[in-house]
Amino acid sequence: xxxxxxxxxxxxxxRLDTKVDNILKRLDTLDSLEKRVGKLEAxxxxxxxxxxxxxxxxxxxxxxxxxxxxLNSIGIAIGTLFGISR
Length: 86
Prior knowledge:
Blueprint: H1 3-85
């Protein structure tokens, strides 16, 4: 093999080696990004559960409010009837 071809081959190998190194660095970055995405997804699930729990608590409070509002209205009606009858 002539020297110029060997030199070209060496240069090609150096460039390929550099490209492989860059690809490996990117793969390392992807691993850390995958871990971050996984962590964010887990946190998102926790936040969704908190939101669902708060929604259920709000619904309970609305039901209690309706109950006490109805009870209060009944009490006022009974009080009014007693007041009128006297």
